[in-house]
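Final paragraph of the annual report: two paired records, presented back to back.
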Amino acid sequence: MTTLRDAAMKSKAWPFEEARRVLKRYEKKDPEKGYVLFETGYGPSGLPHIGTFGEVARTTMIRRAFQMISDIPTRLFCFSDDMDGMRKVPDNVPNTDMLRQHLQEPLTTVPDPFGQFDSFGAHNNAMLRRFLDTFGFEYEFISATEFYKSGRFDDTLLLAAERYDAIMNVMLASLREERQQTYSCFLPISPKTGKVLYVPLKNVDAKNGTITFDDEDGQELTLPVTGGHVKLQWKPDFGARWAALDVDFEMYGKDHSTNTPIYDGICEILGGRKPEHFTYELFLDQEGQKISKSKGNGLSIDEWLTYAATESLSYFMYQKPKTAKRMYFDVIPKAVDEYHQQLRAYPDQTPEQQLANPVWHIHGGEVPASDLVVPFQMLLNLASVAGAKDKGGLWGFIRRYAPEASPETNPALDQAAEFAVRYFNDFVAPTRRFRAPTDQERRALEDLAGRLAAWDQPADAEALQTMVFAIGRDHQFEPMKDWFRALYPGASLAPIRGRVSAASSRCSASRKPAR
């Protein structure tokens, strides 16, 4: 009998493929550190964004897949590069004049412009942790500042001083000639100004573990490489961190891919084993342009979660991570409905199919049942047609379609109704403009009103749909969808096309001559 673990070892779902690559690292013996380490990185110069969510969510999916195929313990570190110097003042924070006085200082020494934490770095780290906790991610937070100052990085830094020339050979080969003249992998932190200094080094003393340089005022200074007196430039820091922590897996965006040989080379120079990497494609906006925090194009995570549940975003992140995807408002309804389609399919699937189902990876095998008995796209159309002001107005229509449903028994449907109304009021209502009907449409609508007023049969949805279709045919709408566009202006016809087709068949059958 095939077990779930057996099925997982053969699954072609990408998290299992990545998990098997990680497991192969330890096919001969278990890790000496006692666990497999997954890592994600975060630059705390700004607030967490949708890319941060994507990295942690996808890494978590791979970690869960690994736990299915192996008994080796795992850990996930979320590493904050909060010792980086603040290179520019963000546009979206208060007290910008104060911040300008602290340019190039480590983020964990820059005062918090919000006045809530000990530093700007601490503020953004707190936002990151709250962000990750909101989504229920299991992780361990590591601050680069604490990592450097506590001595956890000391052995690696001393080794970097000893193997300075080898590291520099890797780095210099990747730099323009003019940059080569001043580059050093070590960045001293001025004991006078507290700034991270991008200065050439006059000497690296491997025996004593020190560097010598000229401070900003021209005075020659010597500092130990340990204890948080220096930090590494970001590319060497990447590889050094992998070596120091013995990282087994890290993913990053395609924009990092050209640096992968640099990261790997420095990791190995410092005695580490390069981790397994996973490079994902970047997100695009509606026009196919790369999403940029500075441009503000594309969707933010807050915008997505204003109009749909977290699980739909996780579903979007699961799909084809190595393919560039456009991320804008129109993808949300599709993601919601496909997610619930997968939930409904899950109970009847074989173990192999379940492990290939995105919802297994979203929920770590604890897959809930779907109570979204009305598709989200239909709710959006209904909100638009009805001009709904609140979800209570939508429920009057929902109960006609699904009389057994209620906000209490169908909480996901209730939430989706609220999202649909919010989407309508934010995007559709402010720009909606009504037009006068054409003569053909006016005659057909008057006919419809008359027939509805005279209707004395039970309120049967199929019979009424057939009658509406018959009116369109009687008034010679060609194609027939023009009639339904007149009835549902601005709404997608996808949810009603199947009904139109069925009604057409019944109407045509009723007009066939008897034999």
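The closing record of the year follows.
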Amino acid sequence: MRTVDDPHMKEKTMATDSPDRSNMEAAFEALAKNAKAWPFDEARKIIARIEKYGEKPDGVLFETGYGPSGLPHIGTFGEVARTTMVRHAFEILTGGKVRTRLLCFSDDMDGMRKIPDTVPDPEALKPYLHMPLTVVPDPFGGKFESFGHHNNAMLRRFLDTFGFDYEFASATDYYKSGRFDTMLLHAVACYDDIMKAMLPTLGKERQATYSPFLPISPKTGRVLYVPMKHVDAAAGTITFDDEDGTETTLPVTGGAVKMQWKPDFGMRWAALDVDFEMFGKDHGPNAPLYDRICNILGGRAPEHFIYELFLDDKGEKISKSKGNGLTIDEWLTYASPESLALFMYQKPKTAKRLYFDVIPRQVDDYYAFLGKYPADTPEQQIENPVWHIHSGEPPVDTIPVSFSMLLNLVSASNSEDAGVLWGFLSRYRPGMTAENTPELDRLVAYAIRYFHDFVKPAKVFRAPSATERAALADLDARLAAMPAGADGEAIQNEVYAVGKEHDFANLRDWFQGLYQVLLGQDQGPRFGSFVALYGIAETRALIAEALAGGLVTEKQD
């Protein structure tokens, strides 16, 4: 993640040619040899590859693939973010002496096999079923040349905003410009060997009609899944029956034909000499087949990293065409790019729910790691997620109030006005303003939006039980006796004392009661810290309203 156009992140941009940075990278190079973070494990595989086969003149090529059948989702971004982390780890281990490139490849010549649920007028796209995505009209206002071009632009917009150092590649451009012609002609010559690799992986019915080549019908423009009648290696052509039954011969070059997706993986690896590519677990069983086809075509299969899939709120795999899970823009409406990068970094081989409710935890965890970083030893710093998120140079940002605390402040204050919230924050930390703490101000804006859309609709206040009523009255009396400027720790001690002196089965029941009665939710912040931020007088007023029944949600009354 080299440069950043996001105005919120300009101060975090790395100066890759600065002497200080060079000295830092040199210091980390020695530590990286024993680093346990997963990007270093993957980087070592690439180093072993170079040691075995030698260094290529054009360096190491990292690749990510993208299928633009729908709007880009966070999983697509995750591949680029994670690959970038591996790339940076490789550069540290090699001292920056080996050239690296990252190619983001879009399979935009694929036929549109079904109409995505996310387009505004699905009926308008029906005539274009099975046509290449770069031929299908743009359904989003027609601002782009095609549906494929639109989706490619959406992906590039975000990658550019986040500051990834990458090159974009379009399958349509590569096929039509002749970039793949040499390898496609070689695939014709190796047709029998490719079929021997593919057929055992298919059912009997599919075997009868399968071809690794998909011709584009000269008459309808559709991508055809038809058997080959003849493959002429000398002429570099294929012969098949078009949709109307007409026998047709086409060259495999110049964009007249594309390859089936499994052979296409191997062909692309061989044509581009890819060194590293990661993909989801759903591709895992096919990885040996991709490798074999790459080898048949004279290439050397790249190093792989297979990550677990993302799940939606129902535990189902997220899909671009279904539009379930989160989009990139949705995450960035409620939280920072850095929190998203942290989500991608952590446990990539563990299936994770990717839905709105994971956002607050990621935001708070990001700032926790960031706050810890300066005090870490160098050995710990290189294992800290923020080192990988910021390519070795995390910003210096301290956030005195957590995101979850801000959400509760919005709730308790009954205000979604940033100015009102800053009134509480400035009282909590005198001299702290939106102007001199822009990072916190950014979090305030995120918290207001997240609270309004997700927390507020789900809040349900209940009346206190008899035990809770007595405990709340006791807490109110203790707060009244405390000085106005009491800190969170002192207040927390009183909250604990109240819980211990009243008849609760355990203290967890007491705290859950506080959250449900006063905040309308099952969980909440460290209560003493919340009172210190919100104010003792304001908290006492909240308790009084709860005891009077003024907070109880109507349907629970």
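The chain has 24 helices and twelve strands. This concludes the annual technical report; the extension proposal builds directly on these records.
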